[in-house]
Amino acid sequence: GLLANLAALAGHTADVFAEWGAELNHGPTKTAALVELRGRGAKRARVQLHVHDGQRLACKRQGGGTFALATAFRYQHLGGIIDVGRGMRPEIKARAADMRAAERDLRQHIFDRPSLRQKAKDIFAEALAGSRLHHNAQAWLPLGTRAAKDFRTAAMQLARSARGLRRGNDGNVQDTEVEATSTGPTAEEQLSMERLKFLPRLLRHAPPILCAMLATDDAEDPTAWKGALAADYRWMAKQLGWPAPDTAEAALAAHWRR
Asked: How many beta carbons lie within 10 A of that of residue 252, not counting itself?
């Protein structure tokens, strides 16, 4: 079944590492495998692996030895959360929790001070709390429906809190009213802005590279990072009168590849 094939693959992988003089460290909190099971019997295999086997896989080595390989749904790497389903939702949830902790600290000292103008409160909210939510967002994959909803909910909570609109004291003010009076961008605009920061630099210093990126097939895929970048470029090109990527820029990319 799936688990037997997975155990065999893990054993062969360990043997290959050993052939090159590198032994995998199987101790606690050491080597683990990010495993995604798909296909017929995947649900039963997931239950067996993660519930009954305690997320550990018994693997056989070529020499007859065995080892227990730990498996995981996600892990944290260089400050970011890598999810087995390649989704951004766990990362968004962790960032939202960090943002809410900062937002609570800002209430007494910033948001609830009547002497501060609303524009100043918005600046403090964005710089000290909002930045925790969307830091490095230009490198994110396009958000799925639920991840995008989580991101917008967190961003809206911050905007409402900066105006004193919190649970039990929201005055039945709708989110659309808050967005209409906000001096900052919406959640969707913020993600685009993070990506747009890098487009002028690429155009100035390495236009053929940018054009080649926008001319690839996955640039037409709205779920791919290049697709999001291409959509942002088209928006910027329209505002500034630049050539669209599917006309002059695409021709330049083709010339560059030749």
From this structure: 18
Orientation of helix 145-162 relative to helix 118-125, angle to 10°: 140
- Compute the average pLDDT of residues 241-253: 53
Strand pairing class (80-83; 74-77): antiparallel
Query: Contact at 8 Å (CB) between 17 and 23?
Result: yes
**Sheet containing 56-60: order of strands:** 32-34, 66-72, 56-60
Q: Are strands 74-77 and 56-60 parallel, antiparallel or unpaired?
A: unpaired
Q: How far apart are CA 187 and CA 103, in angstroms?
A: 16
Contact 236, 224 (CB under 8 A): no
Whether this model's pTM surpasses 0.70? no
Q: Give, for 77, the enclosing helix (H) or strand (E).
A: strand 74-77
pLDDT at 4: 80
Using a 10 angstrom Cβ sphere, with 0-12 exposed, 13-18 middle and 19 or more buried, the burial of residue 45 is buried
